[in-house]
Amino acid sequence: MYALGLDTADLLGAFLVGGVVQVERCEHDAELTVNNCFVDSIFCVEQDAQAACSTYQAAVEKLQASTQFVRGDVAPHNAVGDAYVSWAERVSDNNAMQHLQSALDHGYQAALHINASCTEALIGIGEVHSKMGKLCQRNGSNDADPHLHEAARAFERALQSPANLGSFQDRCETRYNYACLLALCKRPGEAINVLAELLKCQGVTAHDLVNDSDFGDIRSLPAFQHLIEQAKSVLTSA
To answer: If we measure between CA atoms, which residue out of 35, 33, 147, 10 comes closest to residue 86?
Structure first.
């Protein structure tokens, strides 16, 4: 499964490298402006875990405060979701689940309350439920399937508005991730159909099909093997 880069991730990045979210109350409107400072050093894995968590907590608090001034804007809510997701990647599995749930409750779902068709929020919800489902699988929990099905539904909704997904690569990555979730949800026929459509526009490679663990349960199916051979032939003829 590909990790999709959302525009609002830049907003989080501004916090993590010293950028400032400045809320300006204008005479006619209130808008959120993000001043991305010049990056002298990147927030990286060398930073100790405690300091990293403090940084993420500060980012979340500032972003949540900004939502009070721009109530009709989805961007700060999506950014809150992105911050919690990034925070979840730095902590234990138990804490990660809590942060991922917060990403849903205080971030992406809040954005959907403002705009029910917000593509960034739908993709965020899909990615969060996918991460939660895989965490459940890794820890032997029986709660994986509901999360994976929710993730697939969110991606399906996002794909209903392909023009809002961004570039050609972004659209391909979203469809690919949807195919991964269909496979994990034990819907092999639908997953293979999505991948076949991607193959027609070279939006998936044989390497993806052979190596992505999300396709582990369906890789031995004749239709999937045929898809791999088709992908290899595309590579050979290119």
So the answer is: 10
